[in-house]
Amino acid sequence: MRKIVYLFFAVLILSGCGSSKKQLQKGNYDAAIQKAVKKLMRNPNNPKDIEALDRSYLLANEQDINRIKYLKMEGKPENWEEIVQHYQSLKYRYNTVRPVLPLNLNGKTINYDNIDYDASIVEAKHNAAEFFFGHGQKLMANNNKESYRQAYMEFFKVKGVLG
């Protein structure tokens, strides 16, 4: 039994250890960015890590931006919470790569524009809070115990979104 537990932990640890390029190939763009930035802090001229970082950063941002566009186009008020999360991911991702910028790869300088997502985050948070509050009020109008519990959770989400 102990051997199985040790084997499980060994596999778990080894699966977590992978190059940024492997994470990129798996589609784990944020993990690839984290690993590449960590390696580039030690060796800022490693072309493999620079390529992995560049590709991962661009693909991850493209995914988030496309998802935000889709959710806004869909026009459902319940989408605002997810929109907040995607904007925060974009901001966090830039702040992660900023310490290693600019990068040089084969005579080409790689530098990303710092886009200020704060206004978009605040707007999305406000819209999400409005949705949760309105939905909570509708639930309260049902006048039953279960609806009150659900309304409480909606009001709690308002606090979480704005807090």
Layout of SSEs?
Blueprint: H1 2-16, H2 20-26, H3 29-42, H4 47-74, H5 80-97, E1 103-105, E2 108-110, H6 118-140, H7 145-162
Antiparallel strand pairs: 1-2
Helix pairs in contact: 2-3, 3-4, 4-5, 5-6, 6-7
Instruction: Please state the average pLDDT score.
Output: 88
The SSE order reads HHHHHEEHH
- The percent range for helix content is over 70%
Principal-axes geometry comes out as elongated
Poorly predicted parts: 5-12
Please summarize the sheet with the most strands.
Answer: 2 strands, antiparallel
Number of domains: 2
The number of helical segments is 7
Note the gap between the termini: 46 Å
Overall radius of gyration: 21 Å
**Residues in β-strands, percent:** under 5%
Structural class: mainly alpha
Main β-sheet, spatial strand arrangement: 1-2
Number of strands: 2
